[in-house]
Specification:
This protein has 127 residues and is of the alpha/beta class. It has a single domain, classed as 3-Layer(aba) Sandwich (Rossmann fold). The chain has a 5-stranded parallel sheet with strand order 3-2-1-4-5, with helices on both faces. Helix 1 crosses helix 3 and helix 3 runs antiparallel to helix 4.
Length: 127
């Protein structure tokens, strides 16, 4: 199955938390094809830097375990429109969430996440 691993899931996985062990089962299954949005790399880097964790190792792990999905100008425009439309229903839905959601839709993939903003989206697999 194609899976976009979102920031929340990567952070739990990389920290080795209890939730991360659930992520590990999915991430390390050879049945799954993993993708990460380039925005996820930025978000994980920010969290790990603020928590004095190894940013470089976190990024290497994400790159080794998933294919990085880059965005272009057209994608950025579509993500902005999706963000505006989604915020009508979910007031604090973030731009990064919109980029991750659009990535999953473009790939025909599920989103592995623990982020409650994704509750109710058919693409979401909540951990």
């Amino acid at each position: 199955m194609k899976i976009v691993v979102d920031t929340h899931a990567w952070i739990e996985y990389l920290k080795g938390s209890e939730t991360g062990s659930k992520v590990r089962q999915i991430v390390e299954s050879e049945e799954n094809e993993l993708f990460s949005s380039i925005i996820t790399v930025s978000e994980v880097s920010s969290v790990f830097k603020r928590e004095n964790r190894d940013v470089e190792q976190a990024c290497v792990s994400i790159i080794d375990l998933s294919k990085i999905y880059f965005i272009n100008l057209e994608f950025a425009k579509e993500a902005g429109i999706l963000h505006a439309e989604t915020r009508k229903k979910i007031k604090d839905f973030g731009m990064a969430d919109s980029i991750i959601l659009l990535t999953a839709r473009k790939l025909g993939a599920k989103i592995l996440t623990g982020d409650p903003h994704f509750k109710g989206f058919k693409e979401a697999v909540l951990i």
